[in-house]
Queue: 3 jobs
Job 1
Amino acid sequence: MLQDSDSASEITARQIAAEAETTLGMIKYYFDSKDALVNTAVTTLLIDKAVQLRDIADLDLSPAQKLAEFLIKVANIT
């Protein structure tokens, strides 16, 4: 959803609930605000990406190959 929008502020909580196949009530139960939900989603995405990037260091690749893998992962942030 964030990729399809110019700004997170354009996305409504109802749209998020529909995309998640849940109710608006559930969204509001777990998150104090839409901003809190978006913050949690982005934080989770970044943590997952950081783990993937860290794992590249453990691969049995040349430094050039590791750099290429790193750049591919960074370019595919979603």
Job 2
Amino acid sequence: MDDGLTMTIGGFGEATECRKDERLTQVTGNAANMAPEMLLAKKGGGYKFGVDVWAAAVVIVYLLTGKHPFWEVNTDKM
């Protein structure tokens, strides 16, 4: 939220087009919302577009309960 009380709900600055059989390896975003495949992507294998479903579900749980389902201060424990 900025000084004018304008809030950004979402952005597509790091969006990537992914073909059906393509695997991505770029890891960006908030670790608390990432699917396990994304957290392990740099170790090999990559991930597919299904990680977006995971992230959407995390946001839905947060909106419904007010609590993050996988929050941990130490991201290595996530």
Job 3
Amino acid sequence: MVGPNAMADPLLRVTHLAAGVSSSDAGLKLRRLRERLNLTLRAVEEATIEIAESERNSEFVVSAGRLNQIESGGSLPSI
């Protein structure tokens, strides 16, 4: 079972890493991670849909198009 602080550490790391990072740098890092995990844009989208359904919160959905935009440096998502 995951402890109550399990979400805090990754979120703090992401927030710290995102401070002062350009959208192109963040997008490139995100793409490299996704590719290292052998995930397609569509696979990530499908996973976020499952998470959104289990959490009953549509804000967790990240479309393949939106993820591609982020990875291409078109925008830096808010956390």
